[in-house]
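quick one, 137 residues, struct below
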Amino acid sequence: MKVLDRYIIKQFVINFAILSVVMMGLYVLVDLIVDLDEFLDAGRELADQHGGTLPATLWVLGDYYGPFLLLVYVAMSGLIVVAAMGFTVAQMQRSRELTALLAGGVSLYRVAAPILVTGFLFNLIALPVQEILIPPL
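---
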């Protein structure tokens, strides 16, 4: 693996991580706002059984959103990968790295290869999550 591949993969993984946190966080936040009254009611019921209102509500939220994040990842992994690809190439173009690579004789196919392979691997992660982890939950 060349230095160029490692650099492009690093930029892509950083963009993927940022977009995953932002997009999945936004999805969870909207869902939380819509269903907040139901979570508070469930937290009160759990608190009546065991005591402690705030920890009970947080337990209900964690119990619901833990498996829910896996489902959101499976649903949004393709979109996040495509967006991370776009942001990675846009960052490279904005800082004139693509121009320097082309002037140095590096093909754009060569630049796109590590992005495509890493994106394929991130989408491949969604398959065992969807088929093995989610059904028992």
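The first helix runs from residue 3 to 34.
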